[in-house]
Design brief:
The protein is built from 5 helices and no strands. Helix 1 packs antiparallel against helix 3, helix 1 packs antiparallel against helix 5 and helix 2 packs across helix 3. The longest helix is centred in the C-terminal third of the chain and has 33 residues. It is elongated, with a radius of gyration of 18 Å. The protein starts with a helix and ends in a 9-residue tail after the last helix.
């Protein structure tokens, strides 16, 4: 049986992988906006070492946001795991835009990096939230199915 934190780790990893794929496409093909891993590299003073930003991105999504979602998910005021994930991820974006972005010298909500970056961050966080909630919800449903199999004989 997995704890909520463990389910959050798995869901956070899955969501981070999905967002990393779209971030990689943005960085290599389109470059529509400054990616979050690029911003993290700048924050750590390693603009010339993008791997640092990618590692920090994977760590934040998997080791921080995933477990935190596992803890908060039952308390979030929506009905579906996906809507809980979106609410959580957009909330994380708002906190990041208010506190982390100014520390990174890109202005509140990344506005010095341009409106495209703001739109990109909102969209990528919404995608992160959808995947996070979906995977977490599937893990919860799977665990309930295994604990109470359909057609199992009642104990005497």
């Amino acid at each position: 049986m997995m704890s909520r934190v463990q389910k959050g780790l798995v869901a956070g990893f899955a969501a981070t992988v999905v967002v990393s794929i779209i971030e990689a496409i943005n960085t290599t093909v389109g470059h529509w906006a400054v990616s979050f891993p690029q911003l993290l590299s700048v924050m750590f003073g390693a603009q010339d070492t993008p791997a640092i930003g990618w590692v920090a991105h994977m760590a934040a999504g998997t080791l921080v946001l995933g477990p935190l979602f596992g803890i908060l998910c039952p308390r979030l005021p929506t009905d579906t795991p996906e809507s809980k994930g979106i609410l959580f991820a957009v909330g994380a974006f708002i906190l990041m835009g208010l506190f982390l972005a100014p520390m990174m010298n890109v202005g509140m909500f990344f506005m010095r990096a341009g409106f495209g970056t703001l739109a990109w961050m909102i969209a990528s966080h919404a995608i992160f939230g959808i995947v996070l909630g979906n995977v977490y919800g599937r893990l919860v449903r799977r665990e309930k199915r295994l604990a109470h199999p359909v057609g199992a004989a009642a104990a005497h």
